[in-house]
Automatic annotation (TrEMBL):
A GO BP annotation: mitochondrial transport
GO MF assignments: dicarboxylic acid transmembrane transporter activity
Designated name of the protein: Mitochondrial carrier
Solcar repeats: 8-98, 108-194, 203-293
Main localization (coarse): mitochondrion
UniProt cross-references to PROSITE patterns, sorted A to Z: SOLCAR
């Protein structure tokens, strides 16, 4: 990755981000299935079919139900996550160039990386809000009988609440993505600076894995409270003439903290960080490698 090479265009960044996103899901999805199985197993389950831990669960699923069971239901996450990850990386690179030109500098520094990540996060938020809204509505227990599928939910929300309702929760989603991406790209910059430079391919991969996983973990620590209030804001249908209990992001955080305590803001943190920490590392490793490959394809002699 030498700086003297001609930068690749948006379409390459977008493609590399999409490939990184799909790879991350292919690796992490089976873990998600295993996690769900263990969570669903009633306490004190015994017998040959009971899972004693993650590895045991993994082996039993493969042995008793077949390998493909580990990938059941993966279509929806791929369709939803790949465009998100593609937007994330392409937006980071494009905004990075914009800010370098704006400030007239040749290289990013720590504050510029955080600013670039934050702006990329805001861009990403516009892409994801409608997807997130439909997902939250479908996942809510109370809405079980209300919608039959994603498409049904989408149609009903537009018909009953108007197309703008799809952008319900835009503000909290903006904050959620601004915080995650500022943490992610900001940490990647910092960790890359701190780690010793190396020419060995294996060490480079390890460094990138470490930088990305740190970024993913810090991003998740920063944005989990926003995720909690975003779900609540998006799950409150707009009723004319009344102000919803959860309306704006930061006041909602204060309200949750007052009514339920600080811990409530970190609901669901452990499974999230177990996914997004290592996942952030995989994303970065695949993204950098695919971009390097694109560069070599364009510049075979370089
Ligand atoms: C994000 O963009 C900046 C600025 O263009 C760039 O230096 C950095 O490498 C990008 N981060 C990643 C993880 O691609
Ligand atoms: C990073 O670069 C910008 C633009 O040149 C500058 O304003 C800012 O102070 C720099 N930040 C650090 C931490 O050096």
């Amino acid at each position: 990755m030498s700086a003297d090479q001609k930068p690749l265009g948006f379409i390459y960044q977008f493609a590399a981000g999409a490939i990184a996103g799909v790879s991350e899901i292919l690796v992490m999805y089976p873990l998600d299935v295993v996690k769900t199985r263990i969570q669903l197993q009633a306490g004190g389950a015994t017998g040959a079919d009971a899972y004693t831990g993650m590895v045991d669960c993994f082996q039993k699923i493969v042995r008793n139900e077949g390998f493909s069971r580990l990938y059941r239901g993966i279509e929806a996450p791929i369709l939803m996550e790949a465009p998100k990850r593609a937007t994330k990386f392409a937006a980071n690179d494009s905004w990075g160039k914009f800010y370098r030109d704006l400030f007239g500098v040749a290289k990013a520094n720590q504050s510029l990386s955080i600013l670039t990540g934050a702006t990329a996060g805001a861009t990403e938020a516009f892409v994801v809000v409608p997807f997130e809204l439909v997902k939250i509505r479908l996942q809510d227990k109370a809405s079980a009988g209300k919608y039959t599928s994603s498409l049904d939910a989408l149609t009903k929300i537009i018909k009953n609440e108007g197309p703008l309702a799809l952008y319900n929760g835009l503000e909290s989603t903006l904050w959620r993505h601004i915080l995650w991406n500022a943490g992610y790209f900001g940490c990647i910059f910092q960790v890359r600076e701190l780690l010793p430079k190396t020419d060995k391919k294996g060490m480079q991969t390890l460094n990138e894995m470490l930088a990305g996983a740190t970024g993913g973990t810090v991003g998740t620590i920063l944005n989990t409270p926003m995720d909690v209030v975003k779900s609540r804001i998006q799950n409150s249908p707009k009723v004319a003439g009344s102000i919803p209990k959860y309306n704006w992001a930061w006041p909602s955080i204060a309200l949750v903290m007052k009514e339920e305590g600080f811990g409530a803001l970190y609901k669901g943190f452990i499974p999230k960080v177990l996914r997004l920490g290592p996942g952030g590392g995989i994303l970065l490793v695949v993204y950098t490698n695919v971009m390097d490959m694109f560069r070599r394809m364009q510049n075979p002699v370089a």
